[in-house]
Amino acid sequence: MSASLSLEEKKRRKRALILEAAVKLFSENGFAETPIAAVAKEAGVSFGTVFTYFETKDVLFQASVLEPLEEIKPYFHEIEERYSGNPMEMVKEMIHCQVDQFSKSMDYLRLIQQVLARPDRYPALFKELDDFVNVFIDKIYPVIAEGQGMGLFYKDAPPLIAQSYLSLINGMRLTFIDDYTNLVWNDMKIQALRLFGPVADAREEMQ
Amino acid sequence: MSASLSLEEKKRRKRALILEAAVKLFSENGFAETPIAAVAKEAGVSFGTVFTYFETKDVLFQASVLEPLEEIKPYFHEIEERYSGNPMEMVKEMIHCQVDQFSKSMDYLRLIQQVLARPDRYPALFKELDDFVNVFIDKIYPVIAEGQGMGLFYKDAPPLIAQSYLSLINGMRLTFIDDYTNLVWNDMKIQALRLFGPVADAREEMQ
Amino acid sequence: MSASLSLEEKKRRKRALILEAAVKLFSENGFAETPIAAVAKEAGVSFGTVFTYFETKDVLFQASVLEPLEEIKPYFHEIEERYSGNPMEMVKEMIHCQVDQFSKSMDYLRLIQQVLARPDRYPALFKELDDFVNVFIDKIYPVIAEGQGMGLFYKDAPPLIAQSYLSLINGMRLTFIDDYTNLVWNDMKIQALRLFGPVADAREEMQ
Amino acid sequence: MSASLSLEEKKRRKRALILEAAVKLFSENGFAETPIAAVAKEAGVSFGTVFTYFETKDVLFQASVLEPLEEIKPYFHEIEERYSGNPMEMVKEMIHCQVDQFSKSMDYLRLIQQVLARPDRYPALFKELDDFVNVFIDKIYPVIAEGQGMGLFYKDAPPLIAQSYLSLINGMRLTFIDDYTNLVWNDMKIQALRLFGPVADAREEMQ
DNA sequence: TATGAATGAGTGTTCATTCAT
DNA sequence: GATGAATGAACACTCATTCAT
């Protein structure tokens, strides 16, 4: 009802603006080759303002990695809650949601890869991502195990299967770059599923 | 018995030393965060010497990417020549060789990923890698097609299958970092194979 | 009483300080042998500050050449407006003003000579100076022509006479270096005048 | 008669080749912006060979300035011996020879100017040139004095007249650059003469 | 003697960070 | 809080000089 936003709200928006610009530029140009000045320009704020919201460049990078991670977490950690049906259907649904999620924020996947590629450079962030992965593996473990019991999935160790799936997602981001189309990602969903168990042709179901 | 090395030979060795150091450091720290001085120190030469062998830092990076690529090419481009048996056996053998190849030069895979992640930054290198991939896809196409005809492989478009395989390799490099063991890579070979066709358990064969 | 200087004014002054230091050092040591750090030190600022005001060393050199040129232009381009009397008196007056002008900013003359000596190195600056000279020649043309008509000046082509005059000024800067005194420059004014027409002894008038 | 040159002769020629290249490049690009490697290339010798003949870059520059100076000296120091007739004729002849001399080696004049412009940078060379000028002034003094006695020349101090003449030559090199033609230099000879005494039109005589 | 590889001092430029306004 | 000027550490690259061959 009030015409002017509250001061708090204004600040929150400016912070979000900067963070969004940071994710974009860090992912495009890498941490080292992204000057703070470029982030400020992209965000439409002055150079000094960036430092008002983020103490240092490293802090800005941390926030760029961790804050979007929180938004993605539900899709990876709330397996039983979000997906339903028998294990095969659950995994199908999960892949669908997760790949869509990443295909909508490909920038962000690049950021993650920068951290994964240099664990010594970003130890704290790396640990966060590692934890993220391990929780995912823990959560999906029973689903895979159940699927194996039902003869739907390969009998290999569930963590291995889970990791191969994550690897494929990461690798896809590197492999398909310029002419990105949803079609490719959709086709890839089947391939992802095949890491879990033999699937002759599930294309229509993955759309 | 041995005469002293020829000047040419000495130069070749020093160049190789520098290149090796560059691949190592570029892959560990990224292009932007690797000072030439660090490469020189790693190679045991003065930093001025690096410029004797490589005009600029960019040229050194190019060489770091392209020269090892030549060594790897045979494993990817001489499909029919190198691998034998029916399509399933050929692909098994190929995966075995290629994954071993990369697991022995994990540094190098990181370099490739830096290029793939920034096509605009490294347009010439990106094109080389893109060509490399496309030739691979062309070469493996008939093998996959034949396997499909024999009912061994999934019926999806062969290029799609090939790309998913490359994605998995790339992604594996990001996913398995610190505690690298041959075991993980070996287990992953089965997963890679499953992108081509249903394979209940081929572990013993992939060793 | 005085309010503190406005930010704009402060910036203008700092810029002028740097430019002044640059003119001094560039003229003394030449462009290539003047480190930016030396200019900064002379101006009493950190070397980073120089880059705040001048994008590159080349830009600083350009400004060092072009900005003082603007101050000198009136003495060379507003011939009819500034000088009066018959052609002989006008030229006398002009030489007096121009030589005084240069004798007060001998540093600057050295800068100009660096540009004149290397047209390919400083093409844009050279063109500016060339234009400057050509406009001067155009402006003084009618004065010389009139003086020739009155039998005061030699009958050679006015541009030739004008150029010989400019050459003398330039050469004087090279010839008289250490023990500069106004006396020499004053004596030279007569010699300059004699390039225009025969002047038995005009010393007293040139003072 | 002997087919192969003596070793001494070969060395002398190589040295001359290097020196010639040095004069050319130093005059075109300045001392600081002329790498030794460029001189070597221009001379068609290897990089290291330059150091065989000239200890350091400074020594090479010194030789580039001093050795051609010796060749030019006769034209400036053997006034009475070389030129004949009454003072006016002598000076005419002298100007003719000297300007021709410089118009044939304009490169060299640039080198001289580099030294003149930076006495503190090249103290020894500067002294040589200063001595050269002073000897010239001494030698021409009686000629001018005699011309003054005969009513041919202006009555100003002979050293002043001599210096104005040298200034004009130096300045001409700076003023006429790109479209150099002998015509301009010839026309300038009259102007040079007019610094000594009133000359209505001596063009035909200066050719 | 001729060569050019090895070296490292020197310098232009970038950019994170600080801080006065 | 917002701004952007000031600072100097860091780094790519050049090039004179040395020296082994």
From TrEMBL, chains A, B, C, D:
Against InterPro entries, the record matches this protein to: Homeodomain-like_sf, HTH-type_Tx_Regulator, HTH_TetR, Tet_transcr_reg_TetR-rel_C_sf
Q: Which UniProt keywords apply?
A: DNA-binding, Repressor
Pfam families per UniProt: TetR_N
SUPFAM superfamilies from the xrefs? Homeodomain-like, Tetracyclin repressor-like, C-terminal domain
List each copy of the HTH tetR-type domain by range.
12-72
Ranges of the DNA-binding region feature? 35-54
Q: Does the keyword Aminoacyl-tRNA synthetase apply?
A: no
Task: Please give the Gene3D superfamilies that the UniProt record associates with this protein.
Answer: Tetracycline Repressor, domain 2
- Give a yes or no for keyword Repressor in this entry: yes
What name appears for this protein in its UniProt entry?
TetR/AcrR family transcriptional regulator
Q: What taxonomic ancestry is recorded?
A: Bacteria, Bacillati, Bacillota, Bacilli, Bacillales
